[in-house]
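anyone seen this seq b4? input:
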Amino acid sequence: FSALEVQKELHKIIAKNLSNKKEGKKEEIVFIESFNEMDEILKKKEEASQCGTTATVCLLIDDILYIANVGNSTAFLIKNDRNIEQISKNHDCKDEKEVARVKENGGLIFNGRVCGSLSLTRCLGNFDISDCGVICKPSVSKVNIENGSFKLVIASDGVWDVLNKDDILTIITENKSKDCETI
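predicted toks r here
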């Protein structure tokens, strides 16, 4: 099991579920069902019992940017190269609401971790502590993207351990003429 498997499959599941979406069903529900489906696939893999991954998915439909995530990989939206906002929710033991949810579901938090081992409160995989309140249900939000350019930055906690949103703005500003994928 690896994050690469989720990377290879989750978008296909979302695309399939969106194309089969019944009229009136909200996209937010499709994301939740898709993350659940991915988690069910991972349950069939023995190595996923003690391994897991974060996931942040963004999808632009017309002028609406949908964001679905579990864990602490974080997405920032930059409009007009100067306005930056976090558009995903981190699910970790630093969030009081997440800690309360975990405790309500029988989990313990000590040493800043669920059952003393996982700093995340939501993820795909890690089934050995799923009975401790760790879930795969993503936070889903949407942002209206109207007229104008925007940039999207999605990165894991390792990046955010050394960079903050001001650093990202500096990088974007200094590399304006370059294709962002090459930065």
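The mean pLDDT is 89. The CA atoms of residues 78 and 142 lie 15 Å apart. kinda curious what u guys think
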